[in-house]
Amino acid sequence: xxxxxxxxxxxxxxxxxxxxxxxxxxxxxxxxxxxxxxxxxxxxxxxxxxxxxxxxxxxxxxxxxxxxxxxxxxxxxxxxxxxxxxxxxxxxxxxxxxxxxxxxxxxxxxxxxxxxxxxxxxxxxxxxxxxxxxxxxxxxxxxxxxxxxxxxxxxxxxxxxxxxxxxxxxxxxxxxxxxxxxxxxxxxxxxxxxxxxxxxxxxxxxxxxxxxxxxxxxxxxxxxxxxxxxxxxxxxxxxxxxxxxxxxxxxxxxxxxxxxxxxxxxxxxxxxxxxxxxxxxxxxxxxxxxxxxxxxxxxxxxxxxxxxxxxxxxxxxxxxxxxxxxxxxxxxxxxxxxxxxxxxxxxxxxxxxxxxxxxxxxxxxxxxxxxxxxxxxxxxxxxxxxxxxxxxxxxxxxxxxxxxxxxxxxxxxxxxxxxxxxxxxxxxxxxxxxxxxxxxxxxxxxxxxxxxxxxxxxxxxxxxxxxxxxxxxxxxxxxxxxxxxxxxxxxxxxxxxxxxxxxxxxxxxxxxxxxxxx
Length: 518
Ligand code: FAD
Ligand code: SIN
Prior knowledge:
Blueprint: E1 4-12, H1 16-28, E2 34-37, H2 46-49, E3 54-55, H3 65-75, H4 82-102, E4 116-117, E5 127-128, H5 134-148, E6 152-155, E7 158-166, E8 169-177, E9 182-193, H6 214-222, E10 226-227, E11 232-239, H7 252-256, E12 260-262, H8 270-273, H9 282-296, E13 301-304, H10 310-316, H11 318-326, E14 336-345, E15 348-350, E16 362-364, E17 369-370, H12 383-399, H13 424-441, H14 448-471, H15 476-497
Parallel strand pairs: 1-2, 1-9, 2-6, 9-16, 15-17
Antiparallel strand pairs: 3-5, 4-5, 7-8, 8-9, 10-15, 11-14, 12-13, 13-14
The structure holds flavin-adenine dinucleotide and succinic acid.
């Protein structure tokens, strides 16, 4: 274990949340040092894969803050924090102007105005986008900008193991350098968790492999308040593969463009469940598909784009068009096979309006945080917006206070350098079992008996993995497994505490009748 490395700000994660916060702090305080640690290569993140875009009021003729607020509240099914929704929505245009100022290019129409997409739950077109690769555009621009600032240091392949806690305050984190295989002790005046989502605990997900809930698990272990974990959002239209694993997303904007969902008989079944059809909020669409599949015994439904203008489709969704062709689906002739997949966590580390967690000196932002914006179900394309707004709010908070004291000298007592490596196939087997359990017992449609069984099985996993962690050499895959189990336990225990169905949480034992949507 190395000596302590002191920094002013430690940022864990290099997606939209971590990068936008780091850039703001570094620009404002050129004499302060910002360290960004990220466990994979710098671009790998949920951000990189975002397709639909960023929801913001831009067309004040047809749209208004009031409408965006109303749509967000409605999608959140009564559990959003009204004040937070209002704050985020009203700040949106300013944050977007800033992003454009940094170089992000959003598509415009023939008159030069922003081209605004439509997605489920939105009452008007309001989603700014860059074709169907909005996240990649944002990630590239932010990484370039961060790279141009001399007081930002970015450590790739550095895995955050745990937060350093002294006297109930966060003093930094232990990082594992995956190339040098050493542990770095980082002492920070403020630590900013921006570690993203949790999709991998379900296996079948739109998320990349980094989405293992590490930040949430670390914060929970340190004693931070974690809330709303039962609200896992399943995206209705992931490309169907007969095997499980990371699944390519067919953006909701494709339904906003006019695509229809059909079952194997060709019936547009969504209209039987909700008059808003394909553009109902995401939880309603995913649940309707789940019911349809349970009733039919089929493995997937279809997205029909055959009636749409193919040239316009290609121009708006070039990546989706190409991906479908790679799987021998010409979208002008064949329907796209789709199935819901784990996509987004509405809950996470509880923060206030400034991104402060319940632990001193610890902030959280982006998908790992729970702000109150999403309530029980996130409105499409509100996530990138939330990360931008909260990165700004924490930056404002930290800029307006004097810099805190430097961390005390931290004893390197936590990690003994054990040499016994853990068998990778054992970790793989545990991950596979966990994912199967979560899909089968803690999916879109839950019931109390299965949740209780899941709780017991997860405890058995937890005990075995704790044993492995205590006697093996430090191994990020083993840490990820431990973190995924922690997060799964939080999802199950908070599901069992919820006594009524709301948004993305649906328990048949609380439903009016077995196929009721509520
Ligand atoms: P991420 O972008 O996921 O970044 C997390 C970072 O933390 C990564 O760099 C990761 O490597 C790092 N990290 C994690 N654990 C550790 C650790 N232990 N140590 C060190 N580093 C760690 N939202 C929208 O608003 N609009 C969209 O159109 C949209 N489309 C989406 C499409 C897809 C396919 C997916 C998966 C998500 C989409 N979302 C969309 C959601 C949105 O992209 C994410 O919620 C958002 O990008 C999260 O940003 P973040 O910075 O919080 O986390
Ligand atoms: C999508 O493009 O369908 C994803 C949008 C989102 O997750 O907000």
